[in-house]
């Protein structure tokens, strides 16, 4: 563990994760930073209080614990600065609020995280910002949608629930030519498998609720900016007074140490299950970017270093009126897969995807879409559990 971030970048990723953001000898050699809970911070003199000439001034502006996590995320992202917020959704929304003003136009990918779409259609609209949704496969053709007042392009790759890939470098080139900020929700890949800022993205967003925390018991988001856009992000965060809690930061930082080995297991198990699903007649399509059969596979292969543990598949159903009944029968038969939202933790989860809010991109055809989060259980046990689901769906 070291303060020298430049030398850390030459280390292997798991070594970097163990060391990032914290030097034990700052705290008498203790391996983990203590959770410093603070609101008020005292100043030794009136002069220092007047000039804020000390590292910590108030709890919302950071503590040793939250700073340790920010430093670790900065190192992993290659960022000029990172803020912590109470959830992944808050991470997206504060980024939008930082760079959009009344009268602006924003381009948001149509496969975006559902609550982000809701924010765009409600809060952003009330603030006088127009959000237009675009095809995730647009690539450089996104230029046709630009207007003189287009100020931000939001990307998410792979897309929520249906996992469409985006040509991030092509979109970045167009956006920057028009002077627009590019934001990216990179929760699926984490900076271990894709580094948005290395591809020209300005703002990298993570729901660290997911893989960094890794245990399904913490809510937190991070927003990381390049040098050009960090001052505006930092200013907005301070103005809004939104901050991450020290205890949550402590848990995320602790989870970060094992994220590399956990992601390897999530990736291997998810691919094994996805390949097994591909061989079944009762599966119409498997939506996993790392499969050669997936339409966006070549983009994933070109830009990404790995895949995480969440993907979807289309349960083959002949009649549309049977979609919900068969999907629910499938899910109700599962005993190892929990029925729940979120993902990135150790347990496997499943849900029936609802795509009623899509504006541009038609949903995959052939049946209901079921999303799987593959956890850390044994693959053979998970496959046996899915077999129960297929049998129950067939019986309906």
Automatic annotation (TrEMBL):
It catalyses: L,L-cystathionine + H2O = L-homocysteine + pyruvate + NH4(+). The chain crosses the membrane at residues 329-346. The keyword Acyltransferase does not apply. Belongs to the trans-sulfuration enzymes family. CDD domains: CGS_like. It comes from the Bacteria. This is Cystathionine beta-lyase. Its EC number is 4.4.1.13. GO terms for molecular function: cysteine-S-conjugate beta-lyase activity. Keywords: Lyase, Membrane, Pyridoxal phosphate, Transmembrane, Transmembrane helix. Its cofactor is pyridoxal 5'-phosphate.
